[in-house]
Structure formats: C-alpha cells, structure tokens
Amino acid sequence: MPANYRFSDYIPPEDNAPGFESLLKIFLQLLTITSGDVREALEWLNELDRQYGLTSDEYGMGDFLADLKRNGYLSEDPGSGEIKISAKSEQKIRKSALEEIFGKLKKGGKGSHATPHSGLGDEAGTDRREFQFGDALEQIQMTDSIRNAQLNHGLGTDFFLTEKDLEVTETEHKTNASTVLMIDISHSMILYGEDRITPAKKVAMALAELIKQKYPKDTLDIIVFGNDAWQITVKDLPYLNVGPYHTNTVAGLELAMDLLRKRKTPNKQIFMITDGKPTCLKEGLKYYKNSFGLDRKVVNKTLTLAAQARRLKIPITTFMIASDPYLQEFVEEFTKVNNGQAYYSSLQGLGNMVFEDYKRNRRKRV
Q1: Per the database entry, which stretches of residues form a coiled coil (predicted)?
Q2: Overall average pLDDT of the 65-70 stretch
Q3: How high is the mean pLDDT of the chain?
Q4: Which residues pair with 271 in a beta bridge?
C-alpha cells in the first residue's frame, strides 16, 4: 500500500438528527403548501412526526413550537390567539426556496449554463466557461487553464497550452432588467391530483430573492391571473392560493405591459407560468368564458396582445406546465407572434428553466 495514503474509519454526518433546524426546513415547506396557514402546517408536521419519528424524547414538538416563537418565526395575536408567521419567516421561506432551486443549478457540470448572449461585460461574475473569440486576456483564469492543460495533455516535457484549455470568468453587463412574472391561479393549477401552484410560488420567491441579492438594480413585479389579473407583492407569495377561476391571459398581459411601460430600463420581459389555455375575457362588467377547446375569440385577443408586446420590444417567455399537443400548438403560435420563447416544463424542471432564462435575457443589450 502506498505510504502517502492514510485511512481512518468513516463516521457519517448526523444530518437526520432531530432538532430545530431540521424541523424548520420541513415546517417552511409545509407553510408554502398550506399558503401560510400555521395551524394546518403544524397539524401536518405532527402527522409526519407520528409516521416517521421526526422528534425524540430529548426534543419534542412542543420544544419546536416554543423555539419558533422564541426565535421570532411566529407571532400570536393577544386578542384572538391566532398564530401567524412573521416577516422573519417570510424571508426565511424565500431564502429556502432560493437554496432549493438555485442550489441545484450551482451543482451542474461545466457547460450547463447556456448563455449565448453573454460576452464582454462590465463586472466579473462567478461562472466559468471555455474561452471564446473576443474574450479579454484579463478574463483568463491561468491556474484553472493550466490545470485543464495538465488533465488534457499530461505533464510531460512537451507540455503545452491550447485554446481549448483556456477557462475564463464570465462577465455580466451592468444594464438593468425589468421583469414581470405572471402566475396562473386558475382552478386547473390544482386539478387532477397535482399541486402546480406550490412550485410556481417557490420559483417566484426564489427569483425575487435572487434579484434582491445578486441584481439589486433590477425590478421584479408579480402578477396573478384568473378571471381577472392583479398585482401582488413578494410578501404575499407564501399566502397565495388557487381560486375557482378561468384563465384570463389577456388581463394578465395588459397589466404586465402597463407596469413595464412605467419602467425606464432598457431590458424588459414577461415570464408567464401557466398550465392551460386562455379561456376568459372581460367585456365591460361581464365575463366571456369558454373552457371547451380553444375559443378563437379569446385566442385572437391573446395573440393581438402578443404582437403588441413585440412592437414594444417586450419578449414573453411562456413556461407551460402541460403537454397537450393542441395547447403546444397554441403556445407555438403565441410565441411566433411575439418573437419570444416557450418551454414545456415538468414541475421539477420549472425553476431551472426560469433561472437560466432570466440570467440569459438580462445580459442582452437593447
């Protein structure tokens, strides 16, 4: 056995040890699913504890509840006795969503971040990529490039460095971006036994937290749309619920464009998360609704707005959480009219696609 190696017994980390932090992660997930209902989340947590033994004799559920209050995650109304989550909990939920979704992106291998619109920028980022024509010499990371050459060619006397060995630090432009995120809250987002609204909420919270931390000069407005459309704040996201609504995509797009007209930034974009077709319009005080097939009256109005957004240089990226062929045909037509982009995503891949598209689009100069 080589003398340079030393071996010792492997002791696995006690990641599953019961305690406040491990229970807090589960509790935050349950708060998102229950739309901020503390009592329901605690009931679910107690049921999970009964089935899977999350607590121990040393640290029980009562201890966890006391720690939640002591650490400022919960507040209790003195009059009604109602328990609510605090601002600290709301921020923790956003950070948890960011770690859950964006953390997976950071684990990807080389080349997983497709950024065809990046290039010479103003400030260095943390991403690395292969050298491309036009990159500045100061972007080259010599230590990493030499390591690549050693791995690719060996350490012989004829050691050499090629263009393919060079690794550079990605740069990002300082241009600001204004994004409107549209979230479908029609009834279909919880139909067929599939919870689609919770992943959409998590993506919205994670995107908001990312922008706050990494791109503080960017703006993010959030819109929900059902029979109507209205703006919500990031603070409202944990409490967001699906309603008995149809899908008024037109109202959402009109509100999104109104918000972006007021933004004085060069890069403007709309992200739309939906699982279905537009089925509703508002005509005066009445609603025009048709859930059967693709109603041409509704579709034509939606396509008119897609063309209007294109004239305003506002690309629309549609994240369709559905795989019906006729819905894909509609989305393809909508995307062609707007000259935007469309993704047909599973719930698991939604966060990955939103983050990559956001990073790519904000690097464009208009």
Answers
A1: none
A2: 93
A3: 80
A4: 181, 317
- Run of H or E residues at 222: strand 219-225
How far is residue 156 from each of residues 111, 150, 160, 162, measured CA to CA in Å?
Answer: 28, 9, 9, 15
Give me the mean pLDDT over the 232-253 stretch.
94
Residue 298 carries which side chain, given as an amino acid letter? V
CB-CB contact of 200 with 183 (8 Å): yes
Please name the residue ranges forming H helices in 59-153.
Answer: 61-70, 87-106, 142-153
With cut-offs at 50, 70 and 90, classify the pLDDT of residue 209: confident
Report how far residue 289's alpha carbon sits from residue 280's, in angstroms, rounded to the nearest whole number.
Answer: 5
CA dihedral 127, 129, 135, 139 (to 10 degrees): 50
Q: Rounded to an integer, what distance in angstroms lies between the CA atom of residue 129 and that of residue 136?
A: 13
CATH classification of 177-361 is 3.40.50.410, yes or no? Answer: yes
Tens of pLDDT, residues 1-31 = 444 445 455 454 444 446 899 999 999 999 9
Q: Quick check: 78 pLDDT over 70? A: yes
Task: Read off the DSSP letter of residue 188.
Answer: G
User: What is the residue extent of each domain of the chain?
Assistant: 20-85, 123-172, 177-361
CA-CA distance, 99 to 25, in Å (whole number)? 11
Question: Do 304 and 216 meet the contact criterion of CB atoms below 8 Å apart?
Answer: no
Q: pTM for this structure?
A: 0.71
Number of other residues whose CB lies within 10 A of the CB of residue 351: 24
Q: What is the pLDDT of residues 309-353, one digit of tens each?
A: 999 999 998 888 766 777 788 888 999 999 988 887 666 667 777
DSSP symbols for 287-327: EEE--SS--HHHHHHHHHHHHHHHHTT--EEEEE----HHH
Q: Output phi, psi for 123, to 5 deg.
A: -135, 145
